[in-house]
Amino acid sequence: MHAVILAGGKGVRLRPYTTALPKPLVPIGDQHAILEIVLRQLSTAGFTSCTIAIGHLGEIIRAYVGDGSQWGLAVDYATEESPLGTMGPLLTLRDRLPETFLVMNGDVLTDLDYADVLRRHRDSGAPLTIATYARKVHIDFGVLTTDASKVVAFTEKPSMDYRVSMGVYGLSRSTLEGYTPGLPLGFDELVLDLLRARNQPHAYEFDGYWLDIGRPDDYDQANAEFTTRKSLLLKGA
């Protein structure tokens, strides 16, 4: 099984932590970088190879990870000379990729079964499988529904339930056909194109532990929780 880790972003929202370090290498707990945790998890799940898409401060990632052998993985790299969006780096890799593979952001902490995501993707026959997580938003206002300047419904401080992308995907190489390597391609653009073509992605619903480390508050939460979550995130460590 093969995985592609997207690690080329500048981590602007996580500054000042990312001023000197790429976001996937910021430390969690006393011993581990986020990317190290992800690589350990992939190896434990049975993945044997991984491509890391690097850009901003990418040479630091390359120096840290090396060939991946310390985690039992064969790691190679793809370098973004300019930002290509979430899915754009995959276009330049297309000829090097197996027919089905895992794609994930390099800043995700979760106990998601990565191997099962890829298996379910293969079994579904879908062009794209999106790992999803339930979120609830509390709205602190009374919400009005209007029609032709008339109020037709009112809800006091409602809650909204919805599912979000976890930043982990099963993808088929054939899904990338028709896009031009070297041009940006966002996850949103790919999903909208598939929906327009009535080629619906598959949803992999997950309700375990998931934290997207995008902001300083998220990073502080990850560090605060890591001691109690370590055995969950790093099984056998």
Question: What does this molecule look like?
Answer:
With 237 residues, the chain is α/β, with parallel strands linked by helices. The chain is built from six helices and 13 strands. A seven-stranded mixed beta sheet has the order 5-4-1-6-11-8-12. Strands 2-3 form a two-stranded antiparallel sheet. A two-stranded antiparallel ribbon has the order 7-13. The radius of gyration is 19 Å and the shape is globular.
**How many strands?**
13
Low-confidence stretches: none
What helical percentage do the residues reach? 25-40%
What's the SSE pattern?
EEEHEHEHEEHEEEEHEEH
- First-last Cα distance: 22 Å
Specify the number of helices: 6
InterPro entries: Mannose-1P_guanyltransferase, NTP_transferase_dom, Nucleotide-diphossugar_trans
Protein name: Sugar phosphate nucleotidyltransferase
Domain Nucleotidyl transferase: 3-227
Pfam families: NTP_transferase
Keywords:
seven-stranded mixed beta sheet, two-stranded antiparallel sheet, 13 strands, 27% helix, Mannose-1P_guanyltransferase, Sugar phosphate nucleotidyltransferase, Nucleotide-diphossugar_trans, NTP_transferase_dom
Produce a short descriptive summary.
The protein has 237 residues and is α/β, with parallel strands linked by helices. It is 27% helix and 32% strand. The chain is built from 6 helices and 13 strands.
Helix-strand layout with pairing:
Elements: E1 2-7, E2 27-28, E3 32-33, H1 34-44, E4 49-54, H2 58-65, E5 74-79, H3 88-93, E6 100-105, E7 108-110, H4 114-124, E8 128-138, E9 142-147, E10 150-156, E11 159-172, H5 187-196, E12 202-206, E13 210-212, H6 216-233
Parallel strand pairs: 1-4, 1-6, 4-5, 8-12
Antiparallel strand pairs: 2-3, 6-11, 7-13, 8-11, 9-10
InterPro entries: Mannose-1P_guanyltransferase, NTP_transferase_dom, Nucleotide-diphossugar_trans
Organism: Streptomyces dubilierae
Protein name: Sugar phosphate nucleotidyltransferase
